[in-house]
Amino acid sequence: MVLGLTLPEFVYLDPARPSTTIEINTTADGTSRVAAAAITAYASAESARVAATTAQYSADQAAVTARRQALRAGLLAVAAGVLTALGLMVRWRTQSNTEAERRDSRFAMAIEHLAHEVESVRIGGIYTLEALAREDPDGTSETVVQILTNYTKRHREERVAALASEQEAPASSPDQRVACAASARSRRYPTPLDLSGADLSGAKLFDADLTNANLVAVELSDANLVAADLSNADLTNADLTNANLTTTCLENAVLRSARLTGADLYRARLWKAILVDADLERANLSEANLYGVDGSRANFASAGLDRARLASSTLIGANFHGANLSRATLAEANLAGSDLSTAHLWHADVAGADLKGANLAGAKLMGVQHWGSHLSHPESVD
C-alpha cells in the first residue's frame, strides 16, 4: 500500500527540497502509523529550526538597523557640531569686525576732538583715548600714550624751562592736566614714559606703573599715588607736597631736591633712593623702608619715622630736628654732622652708626640700643 503525505509548506524553505509530497509504503500490520509519527516529529523539528533561524535573522536585522541608526545619529551630531562651530566662527568674525570698526571710529573721533576749540570737547576726547587704551591694552595703549605725551609736550617743556631758571611755571589748563594723568594711567608697555614738567596735581594715579619714568620737575602735589610703582623714576625737583604715597614703591628713585612736605609715605619702599637735598618736613615715613638711601642734607624736620628702616643709609648733614625716630633702625647709618636736636629716639637701634659731630641737644634717647663707637658724649639722655 502506498500512502501519500503532504508536509506543511513552511517546513520546506530550503530550495534543495522542492518536493512537498512523500510517498510511504505501508503494510497491513500498521507500520504506516509509525512512519507518520516519525514524519510528524521531523516536521516539528524542522518547524522549530525554521522558527529559530527566523528569530535570529530578525535579531540580526534589528541589530544592523540599530547600528545604522546610531551611526546616522552620530554623523548628524557631528554635522550639527561642525555647522554650529562654523556659525559661531562667522558670528565671532562679524562681531570682531564690527567692534574693530567701532573702535576705529571712536579713535578717529577722539583725535578730532583733541583739536577742538572748546576745552570740554578736548577733555572728552582725552577720556575716550584713555578708555580705548584700557579696553585694548596690548594694541592701543602705546599709541594713546604717545599721542597724549605729544599733546602736552610743548606746555611741559615751558614748565621745565621756567623752573630751571627759577621763574614761576606757567599755569596748566584743565585739558593739559587731564592728558598728563591719562597718559600716566594708560602706560602698559616697558618704554620709559616722559612726563617731565607735567602738571599732575591732584591726579588719581592709584597703582599706576611709572617705572623708569622721567618725572623731572613734575607737579604731583595732592596726588594719589597709593601703591604706585615709581621704581627707578627720576623725580628731580618734583613737587609731591601732601601727596599720598602710602605703600608706594620708590626703590632706586631719584628724588634730588624734591619737595615732599607733608607727604604720606607710610610703609613706602625707598630702598637706595636718592633723597639728597629733598624736603620731607612733616612727612609721614612710619614703617617706611629707607635702607641704603642717600639723604645727605635732606630735611626730615618733625617727620614721623617711627619704626622706619634707615640701616646703612647716608644721612650726612641731614636735619632731623624734632623728628620721631622711635624704634627706628639706624644701624650702620652715617649721620655725621646731622641735626637730631629734640628728636625722639626711644628704643632706636643705632648699632655701628656714625654720629660724629651730630647735634643731639634735647634728644630723647631712652632705651637707645647699642651706641656705636662714633658717639662719645650725647648731650641729653632723657
How does this model look, in words?
The chain is mainly α and 382 residues long. Helix content is 36%, strand content 3%. It contains four helices and two strands. It has a two-stranded antiparallel sheet. Helix 1 packs antiparallel against helix 2, helix 2 packs across helix 3 and helix 3 crosses helix 4.
Biggest sheet descriptor: 2 strands, antiparallel
| Number of extended strands | 2
Taken in chain order, the helices and strands follow as EEHHHH
Portion in strands: under 5%
Helical content stands at 25-40%
Q: Outline the low-pLDDT stretches.
A: 1-15, 18-24, 376-382
* Spatial arrangement of strands, main beta sheet: 1-2
Tell me the span between the first and last alpha carbons.
152 Å
- Radius of gyration from the CA trace? 47 Å
Shape: elongated
Number of H/I helices: 4
Assign the structural class, choosing from mainly alpha, mainly beta, alpha/beta, alpha+beta, or little secondary structure.
mainly alpha
List keywords for this structure.
3% strand; two-stranded antiparallel ribbon; elongated; disordered C terminus; single chain; disordered N terminus; 382 residues; mainly alpha
Give the SSE layout.
Layout lengths: L1 E5 L14 E5 L5 H84 L4 H17 L5 H24 L9 H13 L196
Antiparallel strand pairs: 1-2
How would you concisely characterize the structure shown here?
The protein is mainly alpha-helical and 382 residues long. Helix content is 36%, strand content 3%. The protein has a two-stranded antiparallel sheet with strand order 1-2.
